[in-house]
Design a protein that fits this description.
single chain; 341 residues; alpha/beta; D-Maltodextrin-Binding Protein, domain 2; 14 helices; 11 strands; 43% helix
Length: 341
């Protein structure tokens, strides 16, 4: 989750909004969200709404609970999925109203028209996506990867930033021995010494550091946008009540994300309890972050960033043909996300 921050909220703003919500002013948030969408929704009507929302383990549902923002006046059916691909598949099947994932799954979704739309952007850390080498390895730079066994996760951000890093030093993916593995299998392979280097994201990279002494030879800063996309179901906002509930939920996630930055230890404890990732590993990720997380409205630069990813994947054969991603993007919730507490 880019470093091009726009409209970032300060801690005082985020905390004052949270305080209002905790004091029973959820109706205020709903009213501002509804007005931002040009509609008026009665609280009694909103109570009848029900959303189906995807979360990763230790994701949105854990975040909202930790920030005391999970008590919504509408119903939420939470569904846990492990990848953005699954979120998009469920949305296109009509089984979800809201999900999230990196730019990559939405690149593939752009090939075939469906229900999925991008409705917001989460700007996240770039230092937790990196290329790691074994602690005793002679590998010190990306150029040193030539001929080496390099783990990655195919058709993900790791595929993208590894390609870009190699191209920068005159190499291609064909110049290394690529090993496509899931994140958990990659961690096991790295621990056994089956990989010389590993391009990975999230918790697993930090675990490789803390457990096995992995060295980050290059982070994804400058190679990835850091955009983590919020996916919506285009059928879901045809109903004004559900549309207002979606706007409110996006605002809650936005405010909970600001809370997590101001309360890093509390947030790390909540994540650790849910994911079983050691607390010190989560705190290390936070302390080493490239910038603070935030949820924000869509910009034209975000859309262009997504198109750049699609163009690169088409150029290296990950996509079988060029695609245009702009039709996936929908700015209808931009005003709601710009509402300040």
């Amino acid at each position: 989750m880019s470093t091009q921050a726009q409209g970032e909220q300060g801690p005082d703003t985020a905390l004052s909004r949270r305080h209002l919500l905790q004091l029973g002013a959820a109706g205020l948030a709903l009213t501002t969200g509804a007005r931002a969408l040009g509609q008026v929704v009665a609280p009694a009507d909103l109570a009848k709404a029900s959303l189906r929302v995807a979360s990763y383990k230790g994701g949105w549902i854990t975040l909202l609970k930790a920030a005391s923002l999970a008590n919504t006046p509408y119903q939420i059916e939470w569904k846990e999925f492990n990848s953005g691909v699954q979120h998009i598949e469920a949305i296109n099947a009509g089984a979800l109203d809201l999900g999230s994932g990196s730019e990559i799954p939405a690149v593939f979704a752009a090939r075939t028209p469906g229900r999925v739309r991008v409705v917001a952007v989460s700007k996240g850390d770039l230092n937790n996506q990196a290329v790691f080498a074994q602690k005793d390895s002679s590998i010190r730079t990306i150029a040193d990867l030539k001929g080496k066994r390099v783990g990655y996760v195919r058709a993900t951000t790791t595929h993208y930033f590894l390609h870009r890093m190699l191209a920068e030093v005159g190499l291609s993916l064909n110049d290394v021995q690529l090993v496509s593995l899931s994140p958990s299998d990659g961690l096991s392979a790295f621990a056994r010494g089956d990989l010389d280097a590993w391009a990975i994201y999230g918790y697993n990279g930090q675990l490789a550091r803390t457990r096995y002494g992995a060295r980050a030879i290059k982070t994804s800063k400058g190679y990835l946008s850091g955009n983590f996309l919020v996916y919506g179901n285009a059928d879901s906002w045809s109903d004004p009540v559900r549309r207002a509930a979606l706007a409110d939920l996006l605002q809650r996630v936005q405010q909970a994300t600001a809370w997590s930055v101001a309360h890093a230890v509390d947030w790390a404890k909540a994540q650790s309890a849910e994911t079983r990732v050691p607390l010190d590993a989560l705190l290390a990720i936070f302390q080493n972050r490239s910038h603070d997380d935030r949820i924000q409205a869509i910009t034209d630069a975000d859309i262009q960033s997504h198109q750049n990813v699609a163009d690169v994947f088409a150029s290296i054969g990950v996509l079988d043909a060029p695609v245009k991603v702009a039709p996936l993007w929908d700015k209808r919730f931009n005003t709601a996300l710009a509402v300040q507490g």
